[in-house]
Write a structure and sequence with these properties.
Two copies of one chain form a homodimer. Chain A is an alpha+beta fold. Chain A contains seven helices and 25 strands. In chain A, the strands form seven sheets. Chain A has a six-stranded mixed beta sheet, with no helix packed on it. Chain A has a six-stranded mixed beta sheet with strand order 16-13-17-20-19-18, with helices on both faces. The first copy, chain A, is elongated, with a radius of gyration of 30 Å. At the A-B interface, strand 11, helix 2, helix 3, strand 15 and helix 4 of A face strand 11, helix 2, helix 3, strand 15 and helix 4 of B.
Chain lengths: 423, 423
């Protein structure tokens, strides 16, 4: 038995290019109220529908005045609170009105005096200095001009974007539907974790808790809000049942991820499925270490990507290949939430090898992050236990690294705080 | 009307200290199956329950052999797949067995030859080189020794930690219950966003879409998995209804966050509530700009923290004060997911002022992040629209900054990718 189905290992950039050639990004888009557009990708440019603010707005709690009246003793004629549009009075010469932050100024007023800068006596406000025109207000049109470009097609709208756009009366948006994925984990050795004692017995007898699918699912839900995991399924290494599921899922999703079933020994299953489904191979094996069996084919126009069954190797293949591919499928040009990939300086050398994940401890130095590779025991590809000692995963390329060289590190936790001593 | 309830502004570190003096972290802890411990905080140290692996495990797909037999022509006596414990045979002199990655080696074997390094003929494996003892295997006890410290009290367990711990037969954990919070937004001007046309009319007439509570809730769900938002409520600026809700919530949560009702003009409501609830003031007003009204009191032993009603000011107060306080309440010593707070070099000067949030555009330079403050129009405290042009929020302290100085920036999106031109 040999790893006969793995061909020439394909570099990640080439694999991505091939996938993009053979598949198209999501095209369906919907017009939705803005609140429902949060964490979706814009399918249109958004321009300001109005000058903003449409009228002068107060930037402070205080008194709306005519600047030319100051300094002076001004008669209080009313108040204008945030949320009110038409207060039914205007500010004439020698008059003032109480206003709250964000309130429209009554007609006539062109400045605000903060409440802590005045005295109030018998219905009069005493302002003892000259207040400049437009002082302490947001003048009409000062923030945004009608027609101004606010956001572009391809931008993932965050909660903050939604708050900002609502402020200037943008209330709907056209967004792409989310990319739909399914994750199928296969492996006769896999168990669902349950009762702790039973689970421990199972593990000691050689069984493995199915965690890889859940890990990919967690990464998607935390960092890829434009992607939806429609199904997450655990199946035995049986061609028939996996094929049955893939056929049912293909019409409903944009991408199927298979974890397990791509190790050299069971790569067979992945390609047996490809033959059964009449799939077109995109690439066989990725030029990386830890994720090498990552492979892809197209069946019924949809990509099926096989990832390793090992958590860290699967995550490596996912972040290197599937993450950018999902940006492509989802039309994401800007605004994805920042994946915690940081630059860190190595404290020790790392030898040559294929691009691979290296578990590292991370410290925050004066100049930025410092990464120290874990002892080699914890670097074995089949050992994930080192993760509990690691703060991050360095993604190194195939060159040699010396101390002081900079690498990309995926922080898996905040590196501030204590670290348990390495045994 | 003056901001009479704001006293001497308290620096953040002092405010935190006062809160910690008057309140205790969560003490309740539960023993749960490990799968249910993901994203909870450990209430105990975890030690390895067994040597790991408990027996030699294969690190490759290949052939289990006695190293002393190599090179040689070895008789195949069976196979051992991952997930199998007792294969019913052992490896005697001159024998070998097929094994998959992660499988326990049959008794007698002490090394593995990868399948691509052998020839197989008529039930025999031909190994043409000497294989060293323990080559391509994870020897018994090589990864972890029984009793070894794996994780400590105060560690937030991630999905990766759970995968790693299950691997070595840790199957349960004692974790603290999550910190429970409630978020109450108050403001007569606030509306829930709905039908886009109606919402736009409301905004133009001065109403404001309630987004601040949702923003805090989003931040918690994305970055503070040890915290649960038990309730998120919108109420008018009416003392009675807010007091009614606070009284109902206090017995059930560890912390109440009030947004709005703390601006200088309506700070009254916050303190009227404090008086009605017999609350003990912790601090009145924070030494920051953008979040200044942030205040706190203790009622029935529980903290009630008032945040600004403005999204960005509320987020500022939250990240500076509430985020570290929630780490304290939740017993988090290590392992919180990395909030995307990065170090960035300023490309322009920033003048003196109170600690405050500054909207910035962020670029990725050779040496790290570069932050450029947005034009002042977009920095007004009541304007959030600038956020759509920003990639991050710089948290500056009260000193002066020159170009090249380093500031902390909360990335609000991945700064890679296009940025819309500033108007």
């Amino acid at each position: 038995m040999t790893a006969r189905y793995i061909g020439t290992l394909t570099p990640v950039s080439k694999a991505l290019e091939l996938l993009a050639e053979k598949t198209a990004p999501v095209r369906e888009a919907y017009r939705v109220p803005l609140r429902d557009a949060a964490w979706s990708v814009l399918a249109e440019d958004i321009h300001a529908p109005h000058d903003w603010p449409p009228r002068h707005k107060s930037a402070y709690d205080g008194y709306a005045v005519r600047s030319s009246d100051t300094p002076g003793r001004l008669r209080l004629v009313g108040e204008a609170l945030i949320g009110e549009s038409d207060v039914g009075f205007s500010i004439g010469p020698g008059e003032a009105a109480y206003v709250t932050t964000g309130a429209y100024l009554p007609e006539g007023a062109d400045a605000v005096v903060p409440e802590e800068r005045v005295r109030v006596e018998n219905g009069y406000v005493i302002v003892d200095y000259h207040v400049e025109k437009y002082k302490n207000i947001d003048p009409a049109g000062s923030m945004v001009r009608k027609g101004q470009l606010l956001a572009r097609r391809g931008q993932l709208l965050s909660s903050l974007d939604v708050a900002a756009l609502y402020e200037v009366a943008v209330t709907e948006a056209t967004v792409y539907r989310r990319v739909r994925t399914a994750i199928i984990s296969t492996g006769n050795e896999l168990i669902l974790p349950g009762d702790p004692l039973w689970t421990r017995e199972m593990i000691l007898s050689g069984k493995v808790v199915a965690t890889t699918g859940g890990l990919i699912s967690w990464f998607i839900s935390d960092y890829l809000p434009w992607v939806e995991v429609a199904e997450e399924i655990l199946l035995p290494d049986e061609r028939e049942s996996v094929a049955w599921w893939i056929k049912r899922l293909l019409p409903h999703v944009d991408l199927i991820l298979l974890t397990g079933g791509t190790g050299p020994s069971n790569i067979d299953l992945f390609y047996q499925l490809q033959e059964e489904l009449g799939g077109e191979i995109v690439f066989r094996g990725l030029y990386v270490k830890g994720g090498r069996p990552t492979s892809a084919y197209i069946a019924e126009g949809k990509p099926v990507i096989g990832l390793s069954g090992y958590p860290l190797s699967a995550l490596h293949g996912f972040i290197r290949l599937v993450y950018p591919y999902l940006r492509y499928l989802g039309n994401v040009a800007r605004g994805a939430p920042p994946v915690p990939l940081v630059k860190a300086r190595l404290t020790e050398a790392i030898g040559k090898g294929r691009p691979r994940p290296i578990k590292v401890r991370v410290e925050v130095g004066e100049e930025g992050y410092l990464a120290t590779p874990l002892q080699s025991t914890y670097q074995l590809s089949s050992a994930n236990v080192g993760l509990v000692y690691a703060d991050g995963i360095a993604f190194v390329s195939d060159r040699e690294y010396g101390p002081g060289d900079v690498v990309d590190v995926l922080l898996i936790r905040d590196p501030r705080g204590y670290r348990p001593p390495m045994p």
